Amino acid sequence: MRRKPTAQHFEMGRVEENVERFSFASTPHRHDCFFFMLVTRGSGIHKIDTIEYNVKPFATYLMLPGQVHGWSFSKDIAGYYIYFTLEFYNSYARERHIEKFPYLRVYTPDTYVQFDPVKDAHLPAMLEAMYDEFTQKRVGWDDILRNCLDILLILITRKSTSATTIKGTTTTVNHIRKLQILIEEHFTKLKLPSEYAKLMNMTPKHLNALCKGALNKTFTDLIQERLLLEAKRYLVYTDKSIKQISKILGFNDLSYFMRFFKKHMNQTPDQFRKSVTYVKSLREEGVL
C-alpha cells in the first residue's frame, strides 16, 4: 500500500490521535512522499526496509519516497508525524534544496536519529506549533511550515551519522544528485556505466571519476547497492519466487542473480529469506 500526502503536499498530525487510522501500518508498505516521525512517548519496533529499530522517546524516523516500512507500537505511543513532498519543500524561495541534505540520498538514507530528551526538549513544542499552523491555516501557514521543516532537517543533519556532505563543488553535487535520480528511475533496466554516462552527456571515464571523487564509490558500487536493496525488499516483504524477483530486477540469467546476491550477502536469496522469516517467528513466539 502506498500513502500520499494531501493536495497541499503536506500533512501532519499527532500519532496518538491517529493510531486506529494507521492500523494498516503493521503491514509493510511504501510511501510516495517523505515521511517524518518523532516519538515523544511509548515503545515498540519500527522496521524500515530490512532493519528493525527500537521505538523510544525522542527517536525520529525520516524516510525517503519508496522505502518500505511497518511498525508495532505500545498502547501509550505518542508523538508527531509529517508527510511532505519534494515539491512542497523546494517550492519556497531559498538557495538550499532538499537534495543538499547528506542523509537524504537515494541509496543509504540515515533513517533513524536519536535526539536527547533533555537537550532537545524544545522539539515537541516546535512540532506542536507546526501542527497548530497546519490545522488553523492562517495567512502564510505554508511558508511557516516550510521554514520549520527546514529547521528540523538541519537538526537531523547535526545528529546524523552520515552527515558528511558529498565531496566537491556545487556542480559535482548536482551531477551526483542527477545520477542518483537516474539510477532510481532505470536501475532495473540500465546497469552499465556507458548507459548512464550517455544520459548525463559525459564519458564513462568521467562518470566513474565523478562517483569516486564525490562518494568514494564506483558507479558499479552504486548500481549494485540499489539492486541489492530492492532484492532484499522483495525477499522480505513479498512471496514472489527467486526467479520472479530476478526477472523484475532485470537479471535475464537466474544463476547470475544468485551469484550476485551471494557475493554481497554471503548467502543465497533463499537462505536470506528463510533467515529473516525464522527470526520473525522467534520474536512472535517470545523467544527473542
Looking at the overall shape, the CATH architecture of the largest domain is Sandwich
Regarding quaternary structure, what we see is: single chain
Proportion of β residues? 15-25%
The CATH superfamily of the largest domain is known as Regulatory protein AraC
Helix/sheet category: alpha+beta
Query: Helix count, per DSSP?
Result: 10
| Sequence of secondary-structure elements | EEEEEEEEEHEHHHHHHHHH
From the spread of the alpha carbons, the general shape counts as: globular
Radius of gyration over alpha carbons?
20 Å
Count of domain modules: 3
The parts where pLDDT drops under 50 for at least 5 residues are 1-7, 281-288
The count of strands amounts to 10
Verbal overview:
The chain has a five-stranded mixed sheet, with no helix packed on it. The protein has a five-stranded antiparallel sheet with strand order 2-9-4-7-10. It starts with a strand and ends with a helix. It has ten helices and ten strands. The model is unreliable at 1-7 and 281-288 (pLDDT under 50). It has three domains: 2-159, Jelly Rolls, CATH 2.60.120.280; 166-217; 226-288, Homeodomain-like (Arc Repressor Mutant, subunit A), CATH 1.10.10. It is globular, with a radius of gyration of 20 Å. It is of the alpha+beta class.
List keywords for this structure.
288 residues; 5-stranded antiparallel beta sheet; alpha+beta; single chain; 17% strand; 10 strands; Jelly Rolls; disordered C terminus; 10 helices; Arc Repressor Mutant, subunit A; globular
How would you briefly describe this protein structure?
This protein is α+β, with helices and mostly antiparallel strands and 288 residues long.
